[in-house]
Amino acid sequence: TKFVVDAFRYGEIEGISAYFLTHFHSDHYGGLTRSSTFPIYCNRITGNLVKSKLRVAEQYVHILPMNTEVNVEGVRVILLDANHCPGAAMLLFFLPDGQTVLHTGDFRADPSMETYPELLGCRVQTLYLDTTYCNPEYTFPRQQEVINFTASTAFELVTLNPRTLLVCGSYSVGKEKVFLALAEVLGSKVGLSRDKYNTMCCLESQQIKERITTDWKAAQVHVLPMMQLSFKNLKSHLARFSAQYDRLVAFKPTGWTFSEQVQSVEDIEPQISGNISIYGIPYSEHSSFLELKRFVQWLKPLKIIPTVNVGSWSSRKAMERCFSDWLSETRAKL
Asked: Domain DNA repair metallo-beta-lactamase: where (predicted)?
């Protein structure tokens, strides 16, 4: 095809006529700027973010519907929910030569995907796979389990000391389920910077809109960039609100905090310094190793192209070994 996916950092590529964007994370849209003039294909939420945050001109952003077959330059394409961040989509291409290609973008594989009618009805030959955690040491609990743990921990701590400020780390988009659960369990608003507030408005979610505010003092849950969750930064953040709060509990939701030594959410211990606690919680928006394995064994593609951690020969080789083990295990069961 004359298509590329998430390839903006190469600038304008000769012979390419359609540039697909799976979701609005900078490692995928990097290179896209307000002066970009190539045709970008994405869904509505991602399109809102591209126009609002990157100021790309409306005429270059082509919005595609979800779960609906569309024709892009003679190729049939369907966008499917990737269970990653808001607006994240997997791309299913039906090529003119009869090949079917699935590009997962970034995704968290889930058994519910095995009921997607679009995937049930077709045979995928080539799978471009998000291999962020394609290593057996990455086992993390289901998202809902982690959200429940976070909400109940927060509720207990605030019940013990109502003057506790809760902080949740986040990226530009992503981790919304965690801070919404915190707000819900406390019946609180969520305090955001003006910039983050504008970003959240692009998501067109009524549930988010009703919860968020730029008035920090009106919220017991604050959202800060992940990079700012250090004891030093949190101490000075708490100091700004010392009239209301004398303790701060932060939640850092990322898969990187997690590997085999923590068997379940019950094993999570906070780091504590004075009146500040930081919980690393195993909340990932990428698939764990076993979720990847299950998805691949269910889909049974003929060819898998990993899209993450492909920089070294040894890492590519290790992933190829995994793929061939998974697929031969499936064949043996038939």
From this structure: 207-311
